[in-house]
Design brief:
It is built from 5 helices and 4 strands; from the N terminus they run H-E-H-H-E-H-E-E-H. It is an alpha+beta fold.
């Protein structure tokens, strides 16, 4: 009987330690970006967002979803930069207001659109920048 109790205690301890390991290893610390790396061979969209101002960002989200149809690779490279803990990047990219959407090619900002805009205006500006940079590569 003592042997069964001991085995049950060992089994319980192993399960507890295993579950603790999985729970603790799944927790990730939200470290701020200190430097953004952009692929050399493609364009990247960078979206600066502020959760406190999210009501003004819906047209940008809609535009990004529409842009994915024509430019899947560029949208796949999308970097989303939240305002919290990212003030250094906001300063580096001269972001004065949110939402802001940039197209970066060869580590250069090709276009920058910010503030309250219509979806069509956002799409037009970003499509033009992505198409121009695409033509210069070909």
């Amino acid at each position: 009987m003592k042997k069964k109790v001991r085995i049950a205690m060992i089994r319980g301890s192993v399960i507890f330690i295993t579950l603790s390991f999985f729970i603790l290893s799944s927790c990730q610390e939200n470290k701020p970006f200190t430097h953004l790396q952009f692929p050399n061979d493609s364009k990247t969209l960078v979206f600066f967002t502020d959760e406190a101002n999210i009501q003004n960002e819906s047209t940008y989200y809609d535009a990004i979803i529409d842009l994915k149809r024509s430019f899947p690779n560029e949208v796949a490279n999308l970097k989303v930069i939240p305002f919290q803990n990212e003030k250094k990047l906001y300063k580096q990219f001269n972001i004065k207001s949110t939402p802001s959407l940039l197209v970066v090619s060869d580590n250069e900002v090709v276009t920058h659109i910010d503030g309250t805009r219509q979806k069509e205006e956002i799409i037009g500006s970003i499509e033009q920048a992505l198409s121009e940079t695409e033509e210069s590569i070909n």
